[in-house]
Amino acid sequence: MTAPKIAMLGLGSMNGAILAGLLGAGVPAENITATTRTAASAQAKADQYGVQVLAEESTAEANQRAAASADVVFLGVKPPQITGLCAEIKDALKPGAVVASVAAAVTVAMMEQALNPGQPVIRTMPNTPLSVGLGVVGLTPGRSTDQQHTEQVAQLLGASGRVHVLPEEQIDALTGVAGSGPAYAFYLAEHMAAAGVEMGLDPQLAADLAAQTIYGAGKMLVENLGTHDAAQLRRNVTSPNGTTQKAIETFDAADMGSAIRSGAQASSTRAAEITEELSAPQ
């Protein structure tokens, strides 16, 4: 990978996961400058990642300084803070620098309006398995973002997971399936482990069984993409009148499938609602 200069503005869970992926993929630490709010967190993150980290409380114009020499700028603050951060750095940016948000619900148009005209912008929707290099990222380029910009950011994010370039109207659907999706898997593992405890297993053993089973099943899904979908893999382990069939029949009787689809839709709907809230006049 040709290593561009990168600014990571904010080092929360998402930007931290992306940073770990970049370093793991061979991007030189000296090519990356990050920012945090406090001097204590800046020192801790610098020790953790081995990159330069500027603290807003002790370095005047920390975000502008980090962004000024960057080819790609990742905005890793909370959604309500994204447009303010865009306005803060807009005059420090190089004209061709790509500004990529990793915050939910902030649209391309919101960022473009807060930046100088023509600044390349990319909206992303990542999920937390980026932190272990197995994430999913939805990516939508802005009006001034060319194919080279898009491929550059996709390559950088691809160090931590699988990247999908999507039209913006599909980002909320990706949020419902993948953005919130890790919580669905954790929820399933939580209740699998609770069932084990109820049946007499040691809590730690039950948790390990559930976690390893979810992990292994997910790996099987990924490795069989294109040949066997989830439904086929389920059928493969569901013998007629066997133990698994009884469990599936119980799930079907509780209409679990409908509940999962409704939950994903609720997540997607909430993402759209947050966008509306961020768009409302203050």
From TrEMBL:
Compartments where located: Cytoplasm
Gene, per the UniProt record: proC
Q: Which Gene3D superfamilies match?
A: NAD(P)-binding Rossmann-like Domain, ProC C-terminal domain-like
The protein's UniProt keywords, in alphabetical order, are: Amino-acid biosynthesis, Cytoplasm, NADP, Oxidoreductase, Proline biosynthesis
Could you identify this protein by its name?
Pyrroline-5-carboxylate reductase
Group of enzyme by EC: oxidoreductase
Report the residue ranges that make up the Pyrroline-5-carboxylate reductase dimerisation domain in this protein.
168-273
Instruction: Give the source species.
Output: Nesterenkonia rhizosphaerae
Summarize the protein's role.
Catalyzes the reduction of 1-pyrroline-5-carboxylate (PCA) to L-proline.
Q: Which residues form the signal peptide?
A: none
